[in-house]
Design goal:
This protein has two domains: 113 residues; 132 residues, Winged helix-like DNA-binding domain superfamily/Winged helix DNA-binding domain (Arc Repressor Mutant, subunit A, Orthogonal Bundle). The protein is built from ten helices and six strands. It has a four-stranded parallel sheet, with helices on one face. Helix 3 crosses helix 5, helix 7 packs across helix 8 and helix 7 crosses helix 10. The longest helix is centred in the C-terminal third of the chain and has 36 residues. The protein is globular. 19% of the residues are buried.
């Protein structure tokens, strides 16, 4: 597998070939999703906001920036290996937006990815795998438990005068607030929704007084979402209800996990377990 980097604005009409990954934390100005044709937007491997602001694309800081960024990446080896695994042996194309091609973090990331030793994990062969009746029963029961929890969640949301999608949006915004990544694009990725649909959803939540938006002080192109006091109160009550339900079904979930661990070790389930 070959790893290359390319400035997203400099692409030829035929497009770069391979598994296309945007490695900037912020979306490049003027680039549409159709034009980007991404396979993935990997923000977790980009420099932290604190490091990015400190660097400010100052070439004089490049040596120190490279060292600090490499230390950040050293703590994200699992995420890096996950990216390499997702390429499925295609050539990997790292896309970035900065004008300075000689002092871009994509160079550091490329070197880091190339330095990782190849994975020695063996793919589990399933051609001759024989599943037991107990395996099928466990999977069926687990799917039933998930569907039952989702049905509970939908009912709880509607009792709070929210649609399930509005509830999920509030939960996503609140979870992302602490990471300073609660933009509309981030929310769209979290909800697996198109950008336009996410904008409409956010507009309804703003009209209901549950969400507010503000311009990102670090990047005027970006709008940051957060919950209002009313939104916080509504989500807190709803989240407590969900946590109570999870606590109630915890023993059942634990049984599923025990059976799964036994399956991975190729051992039978503990005696007396039923699903």
């Amino acid at each position: 597998m070959k790893i290359s980097i390319l400035r997203i604005y400099d692409e030829a009409p035929h497009k770069g070939k391979g598994y296309r990954v945007l490695v900037d934390r912020l979306w490049p100005r003027g680039i549409t999703k159709d034009r980007a044709e991404l396979d993935e937007w990997c923000k977790e491997l980009s420099p932290s906001p604190k490091l990015r602001i400190w660097y400010g694309h100052d070439p004089a800081k490049w040596p120190e920036f490279s060292k600090k960024y490499k230390k950040e990446l050293d703590k994200k080896k699992d995420e890096a290996r996950g990216l390499l695994k997702r390429t499925r042996k295609k050539n990997l194309l790292l896309l970035y937006g900065a004008k300075d091609k000689e002092h871009t973090h994509a160079l550091v990331l490329k070197d880091f990815l190339e330095s990782l030793p190849p994975s020695t994990a063996k793919i589990k062969q399933t051609d001759n795998l024989v599943l037991t009746d107990e395996d099928y029963e466990m999977l069926a029961s687990f799917r039933f438990a998930l569907r039952r929890f989702l049905a509970f969640s939908k009912t709880a949301a509607r009792r709070s005068n929210l649609t399930p999608r509005q509830h999920q949006a509030l939960l996503g915004i609140r979870a992302m607030q602490a990471k300073s990544v609660s933009s509309i694009s981030d929310l769209a990725a979290f909800l697996i929704l198109r950008h336009n649909s996410t904008v409409e959803l956010v507009d309804r939540l703003i009209a209901a007084g549950l969400v507010k938006k503000a311009v990102d002080p670090e990047d005027g192109r970006r709008v940051i979402l957060s919950l209002t006091k009313r939104g916080e109160k509504r989500l807190t009550a709803l989240s407590q209800t969900h946590l109570d339900e999870l606590e109630y079904i915890e023993p059942e979930l634990q049984r599923f996990l025990e059976r799964l661990r036994s399956y991975k070790r190729g051992k039978p389930a503990p005696a007396g377990h039923s699903y």
